[in-house]
Design a protein that fits this description.
0% strand, mainly alpha, 147 residues
Length: 147
């Protein structure tokens, strides 16, 4: 059976991705995973285990969970992004300086992207397109009977 032009996995994934803060949730989850992976490094690489040891594992796990929840529950993105940025900043103290700053920066950037995402925003029109439309309006001849 032939498929139409808009059927298949890629268009369906594109529609799913457009309805949620995809890049923010993905970056936050990747930041949490990176911090968790740096905790498993050898003792020669680890700078410090952190305060209380358990917090070093708990905070990146919360980062990972917030990133996944942003992807699958975008209605609560504001709460998850605020928790995500606070936990990301907390990893600086608890786990290898936030995964050697990589996980910390990924988490903060992803949380900011998720916080700033607007679901009902109109697609942006480029400056080039706006100029083209303005030139077309000014170059259009005036209707007959009007000066």
């Amino acid at each position: 059976m032939p498929r139409g032009p808009r059927e298949g996995f890629r268009p369906a994934f594109g529609r799913w991705r457009a309805g949620r803060p995809f890049w923010g949730g993905l970056l936050l989850a990747l930041g949490g995973a990176e911090v968790l992976l740096t905790l498993k490094a050898s003792l020669d690489v680890i700078l410090h285990v952190g305060m209380q040891g358990l917090a070093g594992y708990l905070l990146p796990a919360v980062m990972l969970l917030c990133g996944v929840l942003i992807l699958f529950n975008p209605a609560q993105r504001l709460f998850y992004s605020v928790v995500g940025v606070l936990v990301s900043l907390g990893t600086w103290l608890t786990s290898n300086l936030g995964g050697f700053f990589v996980g910390l920066l990924l988490g903060v950037a992803g949380s900011c992207l998720a916080f700033g995402w607007l679901p009902d925003q109109e697609p942006r029109v480029s400056r080039r397109q706006r100029r083209k439309e303005a030139r077309a309006e000014t170059a259009a001849p005036a209707p007959v009977g009007q000066p």
